[in-house]
Design a protein that fits this description.
The chain is of the alpha/beta class. It contains six helices and nine strands, in the order E-H-E-H-E-H-E-H-E-H-E-E-H-E-E. A hairpin with a 2-residue loop joins strand 8 (191-194) and strand 9 (197-200). The chain binds 5-O-phosphono-beta-D-ribofuranosylamine.
């Protein structure tokens, strides 16, 4: 059994893609058992509730220090026997304790082809730079910003007539396609990591 926690701070379209995939195909022995948000207003929480998935929400502001916030996350993960953390638009960095404890068991999706355009505005930064090819990256999370080993990438073209809106739309479509696959491969034990290199068996 792979108990999955999805962390989301906002809209949660990737969470929705994961839920839909789970319903339609399943993740093998994996199951989304918890959705966590640092933002009590996140639409992602509504999506989880609608689908009868347990939710949990608290913020750094409701704790005395960042360490206490991280400890609360650590406790929540242990209480729910979480094996895999799936970051899906989670806008905060995870603390070192969690990164260490769950090393190679935390994945993230980034809306650009890493290592280009790291950070919170990957789509816009790539668009403004004028690149002709951008894409989506699924990667393991390490201590750095968007710097862990790359699991999957898919490229897409930016055409002359594209606007930021059409690029966003195209990026999200790719995200919703590849993130559930990455989660499935993880649950099937098919992701092999050697140094920075990932093989999908
Ligand atoms: C996605 O573009 C993802 O790549 C990035 O944050 C965005 C979250 O969107 N990390 P949503 O909340 O899943 O709709």
């Amino acid at each position: 059994m792979t108990n999955i926690a999805v962390f989301a701070s906002g809209f949660g379209s990737n969470l929705q893609a994961l839920i839909d995939y789970q319903k339609k195909h399943g993740f093998g022995n994996g199951k989304i058992v918890l959705v966590f948000s640092n933002n009590a207003e996140a639409f992602a929480l509504k999506r989880a509730k609608r689908n009868k998935i347990k939710t949990c929400t608290f913020s750094p502001q409701s704790h005395n220090s960042r360490k206490e916030y991280d400890d609360a996350i650590d406790f929540m993960l242990a209480q729910n026997n979480i094996d895999l953390i799936v970051l899906a638009g989670y806008m905060l960095l995870l603390g070192p304790t969690i990164i260490n404890k769950y090393r190679n068991r935390i994945i993230n999706i980034h809306p650009a082809l890493l290592p280009s355009f790291k950070g919170t505005h990957g789509i816009r930064d790539a668009f403004d730079y004028g690149v002709k090819v951008t894409g989506v990256t699924v990667h393991f999370v390490d201590e750095g910003l968007d710097s862990g080993p790359i699991i999957m990438q898919e490229a897409l073209s930016i055409k002359q007539d594209d606007t930021i809106e059409t690029v966003e739309e195209n990026i999200h479509a790719v995200e919703h396609k590849i993130y559930p696959l990455a989660v499935k491969y993880f649950c099937e034990g098919r992701i092999l990591l050697k140094g920075r290199k990932v093989k999908i068996l």
